[in-house]
Amino acid sequence: MNLPFDVSRLKASAAAMKDSIAKGAEELKQQGFDKKVHDFWYGKPHGERRLGDLYAGKTGLYKHREWRGVKDTMYYFYMIWLYNYITMVMDLMKYGGLVNFAKGVWRYRWVGQTYLPVLHWFDRGLEGLRGPALAASAWHYRGMVNSTIKQFQRMFEADTRLHGGEKNEAYWHTIAHNETVWGGVFYPWSDKFANVALEMIPYFVTCHVNSHTVLNYIDAVQSIGLPGDPCPMCQAEAGIFVQDDVPDYAPFAIICNEACDASVATSNLQDWFFDKPIYALPMPMLFDDPLVKKHCMAEIRQMWKFIEDQTGVPFNYEQLVKKLKLQNELQEFEWEKWDVAANTESYPINGVAQALYRIYQSQYGDNDIWHFCDKKVRKIMEKAVERKTKTFPNTRHRVIAWSCAPLYYSNWCTWAYNCWGLNVIINMDSLMFNMTIRTDNLENTVEDMAQYHMWAPMRRMAVGGMKHMFELWEYMEKFNCDMVAMYDQLQCKGVQGLHGLFEDEFRDRDIKAFWIPHALPDSRTVSRAEIRRLINDYMTTVMHEEPLDPSLLEFDDSMTW
Amino acid sequence: MKDLKHLIFFEDLLQEANNDLVKQGKADGKRAIGYTCFFMPEVLLDLPGCFSVRLRAPRCTSPDIATYYMSARTCHYARSLLERALEGGYNFLDAQMATETCTATCRFQEHLQQKHLDTVKDMRIIENDDFFVEFSDVPFKKDAISIDHYAEQLRFHVLQPLHEHFGIDISDEALREAIEQQNEVSRLIREIGDYRKLDNPTITGYEFHVIQLVSLVCPKYLILPYLRETAEELKTREPDLKKEFRCKVVLSGSENDDPDFTKLIESCGARVVADRYCYGSQETRQIIEIREGEDPLRAVARHYLEQSICPRFMDQHEMRARKKRLADLCKEYHADGLIVASNKFCEYWSYERVIDTVIMQRDFGIPVCSIEKEYINAASGQLRTRFQAFIESVEIKHIQKGAQS
Amino acid sequence: MKKLLCKGLGKLLKIFLLANIALFVVFFFDLDGKLMFYVVEPFLKKHYDNMERKDTMKSPYDIDKFPKYEYDE
Description:
By secondary structure, chain A is an alpha/beta fold. Chain A has helices at residues 7-30, 33-42, 70-94, 97-107, 109-115, 118-126, 131-158, 169-172, 200-209, 213-222, 232-242, 261-274, 290-311, 317-343, 351-364, 368-386, 412-420, 428-431, 442-454, 472-478, 493-496, 499-509, 528-542, and strands at residues 55-56, 61-62, 174-177, 194-197, 253-255, 278-280, 397-402, 422-427, 483-489, 513-518. Chain A contains 23 helices and 10 strands. Chain C has a domain at 2-50. Chains in contact: A-B, A-C, B-C.
């Protein structure tokens, strides 16, 4: 029988499982009983974990998942693994149903190939965590999963391709937009319409969960003649259209210039294949200039008129205010989190959870799940602060991560903590939206909304003058960091254009900084192993430090999701 | 054809940014104002008391220090400019009027900026105590609010700083004077360029490219006499009896200030009859019209937004309309084909080139040669092969068309 | 009746415990991951690779299809 999978691999995996059981029994014999009981109950101490030994081959799968002690393992099993599997199914049923989901999986590569192994994304991000850090970080993941399901289910519900070409109610009540158009600009219609970004789910989130998927789209756009050097994020965003893998879920779209020249240019290809009314809502470049803000306000107003024109539904200021107030609550809690992160050792959110949740939440805008998760996180965080729990007890360096992160290896910071004690406290993407929005009158509201819109992801520190990029020093001090992880997106012209100045400044200021070269979603340009090697080299040759977990120094995860 | 009288002089002017006419302009007590992008209207920098210089870095093949600062993965043009600046090649500049219209040139201009910030060191690249850099925001759309915004930007970030720093007269009368001067340059360049529409053009693409470039990099009042004389000379210039080319092409694409690139195309058997690229004449040399009741600054702002077919524009209507404008250009200049060339690492044109390659052929029936090039073209052998193959294919199409009719 | 109830509850408890153990085994030995990696993903990949897709390069590109979207201030 011709099976679509390799049986020998399954057998090898079963053998590895057997080996690991045998190894455990052998260890039990060799070590003292008391120590074994202690490790069983509390989990092994950091230096003895050897997390690298858990990986099976190049796959990144686990021979067995980590034993974190009884309490944390059971927490992981029930409150993370089982809870999330169950809530994922419930979310699917709640937002559009299982039939829609099945149709979507069958039709679209990005959902089928990506979202099924979502629990592995949790595993990779939460490796080695204990106690409040494990719990709070996992709640962040839960928020992102819910929001993602909500969006792709809306896409499938409205998608004419999955419904025999029919344009149903959901179709007429969905607004499509580029992923960096802040969801807040659609609040005035949020009681009647859903807004779903064209690329957030098919592209951005997939890269984190399963980095293999996006490669199809990058290859697709290059196959029509695009050179390989433009930003690979934009390539992928265009490639989804080239591969005809974007659901037809909305009658019009709002586009923007996202972060860069390539994003502007991508709009050309997207317009061609989307072939529906499109309104451009660009973010002006020089956002410090009050005149620029004035222009941006006018453009937002024009865009609202376009939506009124397309939908026939008038602008609703009360609804806008209601949603903005809710969003402001999220921002206020984020400030509280930053305060704890900056001034205590009890901040319970790890680098990857902080980065992904914050960029997702601040870009998407208000959503019930963010409030739900923030409430859970607040409880954990307040308890940790009250008890002065050291949430990352083996921190050797407090790291600030700057510029754009590798999407295929956003969990590098989890590895860096486990291997070297590098604790990523905060990152640039988290700090981009640093404001609440006034709701006292329309003029003030639009003014603040324009500011928020201009501070779009990857732009707030990247355009509008190089001084913004060098806000790094200010935040480094504010968050009490002693080291910089400098992302080096090889195809980002904006960051590449400042490479030498950063080198000079690091040297002149005697700042410990290591570079992380990458190509955003494209794991083929700089592999995860190469990123680890560069950090290892820095930590040994410059910092002269020993790894906390030597098993994590070198391992092959080339086939990992 | 008989050689143009001033061609060698013009070619010499293109050998360095600080050329003889720029030196003369400075000696006349005028301020030299640098810029890189079409969206910094040169007419505003040519007000009485100053003159515009569109920056180039001729013969810069190895921008080593700039590559340290901007890495090897950014546009070669921007890096070459920075290299030339670091070498001291732009020390004659009194100001740089900058735009954030493409990332790489923006970063180049930010390196020139005297920052006076705690956050990053001041490199003091331009050794001129008067020197300053001022950025203007350029909108991505052409609607009325964008024109108003652009006009406001130009007032606050170009005119006012010029007045404050150098006492330049920025009155409406001065603006009208500058517009008139620029319009004369444009009329002459268009007149010269129109000879390319002839069945057997009396000017080569290379010659025109050189003439267009000198009009961008020299003080207008100093180059004008030479342009007038050249226009006069062309009125009686006789073409070669036998055509020296096998087909006519329009050259479109990203930044191109290298006349040798045009020469390379023509040496393969094509005649470049129209130039739609940054530094080309199609957009820069249109007549600025001041409408009734319109103030001259708004007229300038409207003109520069409306004339441009840069891929930076994002209005849906505009994204599509520019394909038609390119097709019309091919028709107007009786071109047999289109060469779309984008500089390596130019993101705008990487995409635009892909779309043009498909749409111009499929929907307008215009043969397209799509290439990627460097700022200074070291790989001329490969390009030559591409151009020769393209020209042959256009010729074959001609023959087949002839046989059918 | 009480005995029957106890028996029923005992059975339920047993099923609950067995289900917990089975799920824990799946969790601990990453059997969900292995199933996805070795079975589900290759199967779906094959499906997507063999799917018939529209040739998007043939999509129309009507120059005048959409108007200028400009509104009075």
